[in-house]
Amino acid sequence: MSDLNGTPTPTPNPVPAMPLPEIAPGAEAAAGEAGDPALDDWAAALAEQNGNDVTPAAAGVFQPLSKVTSTATRNDIDMILDIPVQMTVELGRTKIAIRNLLQLAQGSVVELDGLAGEPMDVLVNGCLIAQGEVVVVNDKFGIRLTDIITPSERIRKLNR
């Protein structure tokens, strides 16, 4: 073990376990009369522990699982269909030093790692779901999806 500077920190010596005092069955009342609060607490804890009997739960507590109907599943899906998500199309990425970032001005060109004509990444909430090519629709940019990742790939990405 070491601290943030890499200096080893000494490991504490283990403290030997102290045996707990045992109270004889007849001594509980005598200890209570003596007025020692620690022994009174131990006696109360032991009495509480010995008084707890475990009983099995009734069979009716856990109901058997019922078969889910397709209409119930459809209603669950309908509930999430109107949730908005953030879709982003990424041209490319680059890393630059803060010095160079501060020198950027209007007209500066930043070189990205994406190649011209290469498919663009389509991300939903920051997670890659597809790739596509840029198109123009009514004087605005759009994306034509060319490759969508499979559901198994999506699950694999979630497990990382």
Summed up, the helix count is 5
The ordered H/E elements are HHHEHEEEH
Low-confidence stretches: 27-32
What structural class do you assign from the helix and strand content? alpha+beta
**Overall body shape:** elongated
CATH class of the domain at 118-159: Mainly Beta
Strand order of the largest sheet: 1-2-3-4
Q: Quick one: CATH superfamily of the domain at 118-159?
A: SpoA-like
Organism: Paraburkholderia humisilvae
Main location: membrane
Domain Flagellar motor switch protein FliN-like C-terminal: 79-149
Keywords: Cell membrane, Chemotaxis, Flagellar rotation, Membrane
Give your account of this protein's structure.
The protein is α+β, with helices and mostly antiparallel strands. The protein has a domain at 118-159: Surface presentation of antigens (SPOA) (Roll), CATH 2.30.330.10. It is built from 5 helices and 4 strands, in the order αααβαβββα. The protein has a 4-stranded antiparallel β-sheet, with no helix packed on it. The longest helix has 15 residues, at 37-51. The chain is elongated.
Q: What are its keywords?
A:
single chain; Surface presentation of antigens (SPOA)
